[in-house]
Amino acid sequence: MSPKVAGSIPGGLLVVISGPSGVGKTTICRALVDRLGAYLSISATTRPPGQGERNGQDYFFLSQQEFKQKLENNEFLEHAEVFGHLYGTLAKPVMEALGAGRVVVLEIVVNGAKQIRKRFAQALMFLILPPAPTTLGERLNHRRRDAKDVIAERLAKADGEIRFARESQCYNYTIVNDDLEKAISQIVTIINQQKEKA
Question: What pLDDT does 133 receive?
């Protein structure tokens, strides 16, 4: 049976972090876990594991058939195709964490963020941007995780992603990550303020 997914958030606070590759989303999300005791949703994906990545910890690695079956069973809150692979947020663990009153963080692409906004009007949505276009290339090269052709593809898509994100008008806040600590502090402050209002 697929989990019940309503348009309201039961008890907790749903936080979405989006932005182009290399902008610092993962680092920010991990900081939110450390500083707020937030629950970081683990995405499911059809892409193969990267070096050092573990199933159930970094991602839930699924075959195309497994992913599509879960999609048919309405087990995802959102899903998207990114660089030829499918990604999605499994509903059950997210809804359980929200039901327990926790802050739940989703690190997802803009297309997925739009789907979340449609389902959960009160989700807190953050768009993370680089201080300059050249910053993304520097960061992607520095982390040494992707081949040069993959980095080039990510950079080519970044401008379109940012434009699409701004036009979507689904984000509450835009944070420019020119200083990582400052960006994290801004987001933590906004989340704490939102929790106080609840």
Answer: 61
Burial of residue 3 (number of CB atoms within 10 Å: 0-12, 13-18, 19+):
middle
Domain 13-197 CATH superfamily: P-loop containing nucleotide triphosphate hydrolases (3.40.50.300)
pTM for this one? 0.81
Pull the structure tokens for residue 10. Answer: 């039961």
pLDDT reading at 139 higher than 60: no
Pairing of strands 76-82, 85-90: antiparallel
- Total length of the chain: 198
Q: Tell me the three-class secondary structure of the chain, residue by residue.
A: CCCCCCCCCCCCEEEEEECCCCCCHHHHHHHHHHHHCCEECCEEECCCCCCCCCECCCEEECCHHHHHHHHHCCCEEEEEEECCEEEEEEHHHHHHHHHCCCEEEEECCHHHHHHHHHHCCCCEEEEEECCCHHHHHHHHHHHCCCCHHHHHHHHHHHHHHHHHHHHHCCCCEEEECCCHHHHHHHHHHHHHHHHHHC
Q: How confident is residue 149, by pLDDT bands cut at 50, 70 and 90?
A: low
Q: What is the rounded distance in angstroms from the CA atom of residue 48 to the CA atom of residue 64? A: 11
Q: Where are the domains of the chain?
A: 13-197
| More confidently predicted of 63 and 109 | 63
